[in-house]
Amino acid sequence: MLRKGVCKDIKTKTDKKKMRKNRLLLQACAIAVLALGFLSSCIRNEDPTMECDIETMWIEGDEYKPYFYDVNDMKKVVLSTESNPTFNVRSVILMPNKVAVHFTLTPGATISPENGSVQDFSNGDVTYTVTAEDGVTTRTYKVGFREPALPVTNRTNSFEDYEEVRYSYSQIYYHRFLETSSTGEKLNNVWASGNEGFCLSMLNRILSNLPGRPEEFPTYSDPNGRTGRCVKLQTLSTGDLGKSSHRPIAAGNLFLGRFNVTYAATNSLLATEMGIPFNFEPVRVTGYYKYTRGKEFTDKDSRIIPDRLDEADIYAVLYLNKDENGKAVMLNGGNVLTSPYIVRKARVASLPPTEEWTPFDMFFEGDKKIDAELLANQGYNLALVFSSSKEGASFEGAIGSTLYIDDVVVSVKNKEEK
Q: From the CB of residue 65, how many other CB atoms can be counted at a distance below 10 Å?
């Protein structure tokens, strides 16, 4: 099991070295799990007194319910990669300025300002510092409120914005795509990929403190787009460890949602949590692509299948994000195309190889009724997925398959249309 969180702001060199050593040991344990094919977690080698993470955060009080689309939005599970966790609200302007936020922390940790204390959010995010039980190790978070971003809706998304992310304390760096909010803020929690999970295939580099460059990852911001930059998705080998665990390839992917690294070493399908809250009825998705097919198609046992050709994949679904009992629903790589909660689905029928920028087009289809009131209150999620290998979730495909994506538009039905 990967340790939750990335503790920052180590105050002494000794503690920093210790943290790096412990983290690398834990990463080695996670890779061992992957390589051997076990689904059980490994023994935690890290000193728990150095853990300093927010695990969940929530707001209490019926008086706050009108400001949220759903009461479940008043509580949030904070992923290990998040340093700016936020609550989704109807309107940032209408949200009260002074709010008490409550936290669940890793065992023994404390937080400042005080847990559950009223803070003033009128000037934006509030910075919280979590201190581990050892009293030395700390991590800072910026907590705030956001109106959910509606990506690529009725406008062209050319994927110009990205950030370079460093994996833990290693010299490994990968790209993460950003989305622009209605207020112009760059958000890193709208688009996701499996890049962080791919870091597990670089154990030798991590242990040897060797570099890893963004262009070596399955998902990359390429400068040679149709308009400015673009998304480059490539199917890569996961090395000997991946091969021994029947996960020999990693398809490049980009999707609306988040990557939950907790499941990266044990169940990669669960790691891809697909979909974000959406309050429009999607009609059509258009864009441009280039595609090169890898030479040899292999199955999860690395056997070459001579008669099979790799294919790229682009699809989208609109689905109910609550079940019949009001429990949150989040689709993943295992059920994103088969879940009974899907109400609309779109998929590109074919993406023939091409070296030129070529348009693609897909329409949403489905007979299930969309509840207008539920839609207005973001009772649906939209998932939009791009992949360099159609069967990549099953670890089947061709190493070298490369898909470029640019200038994507999600067209939606106007609220006045019937």
A: 12
